[in-house]
């Protein structure tokens, strides 16, 4: 059973998400919160697999709540930030803080379920084109000095660089394996190495690092 914690200051949004997710036989909503400030104790108590968290809340927003969860909770859950507007600087801030993806409040039920499952599985990037658009809008064109230094320290091999570029385009492990004509296990090994070298906890964070360093351009 895939467990989810809902965090949003609008009761109707939480009720809608709960109805959509609990209609699935393999998903259970284990708790709700109305603000990011309540997330830490609930995550520690309930140990959800995924947190669906509003990006804008009155006391603690989704950016700070994401940062706090990842900094203070051992083996933290996956985090999807939920937003009204796709091209929102808050969303990019949440991704930079460590969120695993984002979801629009107007998304169709099937898209909501798919997003939760995809983020939980962790072997594909959620909405890669939208992440590229956010990086183009709010990142530095050639990457930041800090990002370039971090990539240089990572010292990726040529093949690892190839894998990172394909991950940034949203390809799954199986699709990358087909593109590079190697086995899926080999791709998994390369992805794990890329994440370790970049200090990234998942594919989304690796892709953000690639954009922040200028290694991958948002328009590429």
From TrEMBL:
Entry-annotated residues carrying 4-aspartylphosphate: 54
CDD domains: LuxR_C_like, REC_NarL-like
Any single biological process term in GO: phosphorelay signal transduction system
Domain Response regulatory, residue spans: 3-120
InterPro entries in the cross-refs: CheY-like_superfamily (IPR011006), NreC/VraR/RcsB-like_REC (IPR058245), Sig_transdc_resp-reg_C-effctor (IPR016032), Sig_transdc_resp-reg_receiver (IPR001789), Tscrpt_reg_LuxR_C (IPR000792), WalR-like (IPR039420)
Keywords: DNA-binding, Phosphoprotein, Transcription, Transcription regulation
Molecular function per GO: DNA binding
Residues in HTH luxR-type domain copies: 149-214
Protein's name according to its UniProt entry: DNA-binding response regulator
């Amino acid at each position: 059973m895939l467990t989810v914690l809902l965090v949003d200051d609008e009761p109707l949004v939480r009720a809608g998400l709960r109805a959509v997710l609990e209609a699935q036989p393999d998903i259970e909503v284990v708790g709700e919160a109305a603000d990011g400030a309540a997330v830490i104790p609930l995550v520690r108590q309930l140990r959800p697999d995924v947190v669906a968290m509003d990006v804008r809340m009155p006391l603690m927003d989704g950016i700070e709540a994401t940062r706090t969860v990842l900094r203070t909770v051992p083996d933290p859950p996956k985090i999807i930030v939920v937003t009204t507007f796709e091209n929102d600087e808050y969303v990019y801030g949440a991704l930079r803080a460590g969120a695993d993806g984002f979801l629009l409040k107007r998304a169709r039920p099937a898209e909501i379920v798919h997003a939760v499952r995809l983020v939980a599985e962790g072997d594909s990037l959620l909405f890669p084109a939208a992440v590229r658009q956010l990086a183009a809008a709010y990142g530095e064109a050639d990457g930041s000095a800090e990002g370039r230094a971090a990539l240089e320290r990572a010292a990726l091999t040529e093949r690892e660089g190839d894998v990172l570029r394909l991950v940034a385009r949203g390809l799954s492990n199986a699709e990358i394996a087909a593109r590079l004509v190697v086995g899926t296990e080999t791709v998994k090994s390369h992805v794990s190495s890329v994440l370790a070298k970049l200090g990234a906890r998942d594919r989304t964070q690796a892709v953000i690092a690639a954009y922040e360093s200028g290694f991958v351009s948002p328009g590429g």
